[in-house]
Amino acid sequence: MTQSLRQFEVFLAVARAKSFRRAADALHLSQPSLSQHVAALERELGVKVFDRLRRTVELTEAGRVLEDHVQRLFATLDSARKAIDDLSGLQRGSLVVGASTTPGIYVVPGMLAGFRARYPGIHLSLQIANSAVIEQRVRTNEVDLGVVGGHALRPGEACVAAGLLDELVLILPPAHRWARRREVWPDPPVLERLLIREEGSATRALRSARSSRPMRR
Length: 217
Fold this sequence. Notes:
The mean pLDDT is 81. The protein is rod-shaped. Among the domains are: 5-88, Arc Repressor Mutant, subunit A, CATH 1.10.10; 93-147, D-Maltodextrin-Binding Protein, domain 2 (3-Layer(aba) Sandwich), CATH 3.40.190. Strands 4-3-5 form a three-stranded parallel β-sheet, sandwiched between helices. It is α/β, with parallel strands linked by helices. The protein has helices spanning 5-17, 20-27, 31-45, 61-88, 101-106, 108-118, 131-139, 202-209; strands spanning 50-52, 57-59, 93-99, 122-128, 145-147, 183-184, 215-216.
């Protein structure tokens, strides 16, 4: 269909005013220009939408059918504009946040609570997984944004770094031979059993990257 919104606007104006002259005045158009819009619409539809009577204009049967659809069209457009305005003003919408385990448990919930208090019309959802999984979900648009800790993104990935610092410490039983040390250097070839995070965890990756540095207990 090649009909324009302007043609439909002119059509509704004439249908409501039952007069080409009054419709032209309402739309600030010349009467010949308005008549051209109506003629073009009828030509493209292949039917007459108005009966031109002596003192008035009436809708044909095709015109009444068209009027119902055009009214719904403009109602839908108005609804779409309002929905977009609501999104722009953060009045409605949804936000899916992904977070790795540590920020997802200890940091992000408080931030989301503050956001919800300020924008109660936004539906919030939080997904918690390890950093590699959250990064993947960001790339596949499963979440709108991701919050991870100590995780190096792939080259070219967009990233906003927040100024939050987290400290990793080593927890030992009191009788352990490292228990009285302020800092611990692993002593090869002596091996110790350590409980560490799974593959894909930023905490595990960070510890591996810093294996040459001492651990604080």
